[in-house]
């Protein structure tokens, strides 16, 4: 049994169908019950079996109930924490919006952590299993506009890094996939429906399958690893370059060339007070 959150999204659907072709039993989770049921039908057609749990990861009690319901059917061989939510806002648009962090922390950190903790205990007791969490290639490099998203994703990453040594000693491997840009509904509002350099959902699903099948702790694009080292070694220079380059990067990725730098990063003369 493999538990998959974010199953109805772009990457989740591709991944669920790939796992179905392996004949797996999937526990599919997201908030929208109708979409989950439709996906479960496709999973069965593709050769797998599926049960569904509609659950909002921001509701910790609901997450605990879902974990208990899953465990009634057995101990999963793997948990894939794929669900995520992103908000793209520059600094000026972020002022007065601390609730962005609260919203994203529920979906990207607290909900997945609650689910993983509940399932990890019996997996450790059984002495085998795999936890795969999908974060973002932007978490370890300064990326203007993605502050709340990167903070909550790297929170999950840091939490799992600290759990990894003990979990691994009990037979449960933990792998984080730092996903680059993928052409899904999540990327569309910022970069359009077909961004340059983006992976297809199937290519992204293949990255997650690599994390599931192997024994690696981190799967990440080469440039994200270099970026992580550079931003640790030269944080001020990296921040300067990221600020200067963000409008250029957005225009490069977006084919319709309508992307604009954030207002906060364009030069603005100070307002005169009369
Ligand atoms: N697309 C990219 O460029 C990109 C880049 C880096 C990392 N990622 C990460 O890859 C993962 C999958 O992204 P995607 O591109 O497939 O996104 P997507 O198409 O927007 O799918 C997001 C999935 O998460 C579920 N979800 C969202 N909020 C939820 C909540 N509060 N509770 C439970 N489920 C929730 C959605 O279903 P419901 O709305 O029905 O709940 C959906 O199944 C995410 O973790 C994302 O952060 C994506």
UniProtKB/TrEMBL annotation:
It holds the Pfam family adh_short. CDD domains: SDR_c. It comes from the Bacteria. Keywords: Oxidoreductase. Belongs to the short-chain dehydrogenases/reductases (SDR) family. This is SDR family NAD(P)-dependent oxidoreductase. It comes from Brachybacterium epidermidis. The lineage of its organism: Bacteria, Bacillati, Actinomycetota, Actinomycetes, Micrococcales.
């Amino acid at each position: 049994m493999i538990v998959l959150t974010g199953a109805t999204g772009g990457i989740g659907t591709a991944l669920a169908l790939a796992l179905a072709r392996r004949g797996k039993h999937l526990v599919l989770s997201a908030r929208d019950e109708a979409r989950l049921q439709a996906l479960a039908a496709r999973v069965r057609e593709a050769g797998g079996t599926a049960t569904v749990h509609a659950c909002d990861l921001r509701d910790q009690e609901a997450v605990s109930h879902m974990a208990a319901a899953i465990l009634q059917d057995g101990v999963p061989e793997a948990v894939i924490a794929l669900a995520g939510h992103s908000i793209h806002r520059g600094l000026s648009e972020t002022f007065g919006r601390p609730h962005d962090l609260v919203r994203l922390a529920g979906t990207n950190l607290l909900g997945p952590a609650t689910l993983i903790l509940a399932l990890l205990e019996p997996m450790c007791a059984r002495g085998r299993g795999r936890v795969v969490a999908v974060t973002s290639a932007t978490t370890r490099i300064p990326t203007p506009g993605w502050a709340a998203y990167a903070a909550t994703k790297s929170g999950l990453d840091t939490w799992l890094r600290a759990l990894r040594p003990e979990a691994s000693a009990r037979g449960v491997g933990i792998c984080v996939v730092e996903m680059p840009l993928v052409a899904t509904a999540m990327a569309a509002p910022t970069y359009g429906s077909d961004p340059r350099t983006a992976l297809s959902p199937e290519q992204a699903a293949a990255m997650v399958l690599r994390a599931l099948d192997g024994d690696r702790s981190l799967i990440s694009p080469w440039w994200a690893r270099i970026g992580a080292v550079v931003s640790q070694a030269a944080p001020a220079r990296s921040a300067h370059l990221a600020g200067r380059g963000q409008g250029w990067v957005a225009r490069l990725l977006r084919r319709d060339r309508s992307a604009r730098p954030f207002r906060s990063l364009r030069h603005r003369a100070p307002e005169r007070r009369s």
